[in-house]
Amino acid sequence: MKSTTRPRASAKTAARAAPKATLGTVAALAGVSPSTVSRILNGTAVVSDDKRAAVDAAIARLGFVPDPVARGLAGGRTLSVGVVTQSIDSPFYGVALRGIEDELARAGYSPLFVSGHWNATEEARCIEVLRSRRVDGIIVLTGRLSDAALRAQAKALPIVVTGRTLKAPGLYALQFDNFEGGRLATHHLLALGHRRIAFIAGDAQHPDANERQRGYRAALEAAGLAFDPDLVVPGQYHEQSGLMAVERLLDRRVPFSAIFAANDQMAFGAALALHRRGLRVPEDVSLVGFDDLASAVYASPPLSTVQQPGYDIGRLAAQSMLQLLAGTQPDAVLPAPRLIVRESSSAPGAA
Amino acid sequence: MKSTTRPRASAKTAARAAPKATLGTVAALAGVSPSTVSRILNGTAVVSDDKRAAVDAAIARLGFVPDPVARGLAGGRTLSVGVVTQSIDSPFYGVALRGIEDELARAGYSPLFVSGHWNATEEARCIEVLRSRRVDGIIVLTGRLSDAALRAQAKALPIVVTGRTLKAPGLYALQFDNFEGGRLATHHLLALGHRRIAFIAGDAQHPDANERQRGYRAALEAAGLAFDPDLVVPGQYHEQSGLMAVERLLDRRVPFSAIFAANDQMAFGAALALHRRGLRVPEDVSLVGFDDLASAVYASPPLSTVQQPGYDIGRLAAQSMLQLLAGTQPDAVLPAPRLIVRESSSAPGAA
DNA sequence: CTGAAAGCGCTTACAG
DNA sequence: CTGAAAGCGCTTACAG
Prior knowledge:
Structural class of chain A: alpha/beta
Helix content of chain A: 40-55%
Largest sheet of chain A: 6 strands, mixed
Largest interface: A-B, 78 and 77 residues
Number of strands of chain A: 11
Number of helices of chain A: 13
Distance between the termini of chain A: 65 Å
CATH topology of the largest domain in chain A: Rossmann fold
CATH architecture of the largest domain in chain A: 3-Layer(aba) Sandwich
CATH superfamily of the largest domain in chain A: Response regulator
Number of domains of chain A: 3
Low-confidence stretches of chain A: 1-17
Oligomer: homodimer
């Protein structure tokens, strides 16, 4: 990068047109010291009513808004919280980000989004960036960082993490009941009358993927059905892997009348594979996903799935962060998994 | 919000364990003044080789990384650029954000994402937030702000905007050829032999939606076909409106053998409506979308569409911003629209 | 309850 | 080529 001094200079010139208000300006106009204005702004001390009124008036008159940058330098708080997501364009985490945005905004905080791309090293770098930018706390959406790494960070600043059960000072973990979700999906298919239910697993590196599979097995066992390893095929949580999983199943000629995919994206891939082989959903095979992505409603046919409340996860994570920041112990708990029955699942042989 | 002093205090205590390096520490270790270190960091002046070497060594030894917050306060640059998107979880803009992230990262800049929700007032507030956070420049993805408002902002700091043609000092606009895209999609259907092509329009408030429609008409005319207003039905760029558009078309009994939807999301809704009415794609009706969302490949059947290169749009917007920041005139041009033929379109009556 | 003063970690004229 | 000094806009002990 070359020096960027030039353009800034002209920018400043232009900005000078509207002489910006500072703590000092406000103080002068209100006839008090900057310290007092600062205290009023931060609710940091009791101030006499008349001074407060004078300051409020001056603030309004000048349209003063405190500079977060200066605040960060001087006070250590930037009113921003870092959010490490895996991919800024993830269909699932997208709504979670929105939940975070909304909740944080209510408290005057801004999120700072960075992407870890499912890579512990990158995530660690993300956290460095965030800390160098002086965020007040960090929300980690799942991620690949070790519990120990998270614990260590929590010693320096508040951390909220999703997708784990973990207890440590300065850290709050929010966990979704993936086991129950997996059980629910499988049980739904079982209740419909299916006996041969294939399972497209998620990446074994994700603890949630394993939990969903445990739920699948538990439901089978509860129904008195033996677990058949031939019916489970690995996937990586993306569409392509769902598609390939079904092709593998079909090529191996394992009979099945329903499929439970460990996430919606794989279910979409599975649907396409079935479509290509001339198999209809749900007439020939029922399909259930997991997550309830926005696009699940408009799949053809609309996908039955287990709803994972992304927006709430985001909102609650932000709320917990705000509590941590305020010195309160968070107590948020994620909603229980909910089965959403749409048109991709029906009784076997209903055609 | 209550005072957040308490937790910060303990955070500081913990952080003190690793005494953080500052300009001063580095200077002391290298035996030069802080000014010199600063100059080396910023490439702001020529420095003798030996001092430079000493400073580089000290930086490495201490693992020093300059504080962006302090830098922002003192120098006016924060190495961050604001990005106003419409919705942090938009399926289309998501990849654009990723393109921005990637390109900015190469130059050591960080994006600051905020969402305007297709609302000029909110967008204006977003820009306030961004400016109060001292971003060095702002990228606006389409949005509802007036050209005049953008022009005014560009007087204070560099602006890059997508989805418009607009010239102003300190501002660079990147425009996608929506007209050509609309023409391409329609021409594809025409070439396949379709004569009755329905058009699901986008929100008339979006200039790009109107351009796509112009492209549709132009292709029709070029083929010597009269424009039939009965074949065009309004939509709002979301799935539900695509679904309703098709129902309206069907209810009105206007004959058609193909549909061109002004974006993929509406195409998905349209596909569902057709599916529900027992109409097959493409055997009974061909379907073409616009955007080429990630999910278009895995729709059943995979959607033919006009590719709008979201990732490149983001990357080029960021690149242009970097150029503006460096005092160079940007020259990026968006790639031409490209038709992606998949399985949702075929010759009429191919069944 | 309220000021004056020092300081957060840098940058940048201003002088050599 | 390089320092000393002032300053960015706030916050926060420290003293009343």
